[in-house]
Write a structure and sequence with these properties.
With 371 residues, this protein is an alpha/beta fold. The chain has 2 domains: 117 residues, 2-Layer Sandwich (Enolase-like, domain 1); 242 residues, Enolase-like C-terminal domain (TIM Barrel, Alpha-Beta Barrel), CATH 3.20.20.120. Strands 4, 5, 6, 7, 8, 9, 10, 11 and 12 form a 9-stranded mixed beta sheet that branches. A 3-stranded antiparallel beta sheet has the order 1-2-3. Helix 8 links the parallel strand 6 and strand 7. The longest helix has 22 residues.
């Protein structure tokens, strides 16, 4: 039985981190090592400084320990048991939010180790591979002008992608501006790629419904997070009336949060394995969504670690036909994982190497690591 011998937080940060909806410039990795030399790596997409403190905090009073202190000496192959232990031993300050964010990274690292120890890719551990490749959708922030948005849509087509999502940026402040950006993207895509729109929690329910009607006329595939994260009553009202599928869930943590979204009527759930509590939570949430007749699509707007874990998860799901493909310019997106698969006709091949198949570019880690 391999035992957890070390848990290390690796904080990577670019010199310039602007205040915009792009978390790819400041990331926290968690690397776990066993007593027999196996290593696994995970990622958390949150405030790296706070999550690092959660990982490194020493033992304290009951149920308020740091993750490293909790995990040292535990059976590295008992992934679900370690998840429950981390959840229980952080309950005083956790149960939701940032404690679950930090647990996500450790959970991914433990799935990676379990796969390596058993000689199996993680998708096999999650129930078996349902597909050899997963369709990727381009994920962009809206440009500052409709012309910039159109240029990004053109880039997606040139990359061979046949689904594109735009969000945030100037969207959500003025209806005419919003629709000008959507029209500019659709004019370029011309029916050759599906378009989705992320509102970034910009609207109240009535305004969201009005915008959804306009997006339906423009054949938008889904309308993502039009309301505030906690407006469950608003989502229930909107989901009953919207002519466009309503999507959301990237910021939710724990199975209970996703149960509430399902109960509110969301059509598309979007757990993020680097936020929600890891693959352990994402798998459980997608099983609940599938049983309720809802669609699950992996949210993955961060590094190649999140993308690789999402690929394994989506490949193991009967409905896992789509994964987010971040196109932010940060080197952490495309260069951090040297083993990351490339696009093939708008699809990403699912890795079959043991574990997550993640090999880090150690020179890049050393270059951007915050000591």
């Amino acid at each position: 039985m391999p035992v957890i011998a070390e848990v290390e937080a690796l904080h990577l940060r670019l010199p310039d981190v602007p205040e915009e909806a792009d978390g790819t410039r400041d990331v926290l990795l968690v690397e776990i090592t066993t007593d027999d030399g196996l290593t696994g790596v995970g990622e958390v997409s949150s405030n790296s400084y706070v999550c690092r403190a959660i990982v490194e905090a020493p033992r304290s009073a009951a149920r308020r320990h740091g993750l490293r202190a909790i995990l040292l000496g535990q059976d590295a192959l008992d992934v679900e048991g370690n998840w429950r232990l981390m959840f229980d031993e952080t309950r005083r300050y956790g149960r939701r939010g940032i404690a679950l964010h930090a647990i996500s990274a450790a959970d991914l690292a433990l799935w990676d180790i379990r796969g390596k120890a058993l000689g199996e890719p993680v998708h096999s551990l999650l129930g078996g591979k349902q597909r050899d490749r997963v369709r990727a959708y381009a994920s962009y922030l809206f440009g500052q002008t409709p012309e910039e948005t159109a240029a990004k849509a053109r880039e997606a087509l040139e990359l061979g992608l046949r689904a594109v999502k735009f969000g945030w940026g100037p969207f959500g402040f003025d209806e005419a501006v919003d629709l000008a950006h959507v029209d500019a993207a659709q004019k370029v895509l011309g029916g050759s790629a599906e378009l989705m729109v992320d509102a970034g929690c910009a609207f109240d329910p009535e305004t969201a419904l009005a915008r959804a009607k306009e997006l339906a006329r423009r054949e938008v595939g889904w309308f993502e997070e039009p309301l505030g994260y906690d407006d469950l009553a608003g989502y229930a009202w909107l989901c009953e009336r919207s002519p466009v599928p309503i999507a959301g869930g990237e910021m939710e943590t724990g199975v209970l949060d996703f149960t509430r979204l399902i109960d509110a009527g969301l059509h598309v759930l979007q757990p993020d394995v680097a936020i929600c509590g890891g693959l352990t939570v994402a798998r459980a949430a997608s099983e609940l969504a599938f049983a309720a007749g809802r669609r699950t699509v992996a949210h993955a707007f961060s590094t190649g670690i999140c993308l690789m874990a999402s690929l394994h998860w989506m490949a193991s799901r009967p409905d896992g036909e789509l994964v987010e493909y971040c196109l932010a310019p940060s080197p952490f997106v495309r260069e951090l994982v040297s083993s990351q698969p490339g696009l093939e006709d708008g699809y990403l091949p699912v890795p079959d190497t043991p574990g997550l198949g993640v090999e880090l570019d150690r020179l890049l880690v050393d270059r951007y690591r915050v000591s």
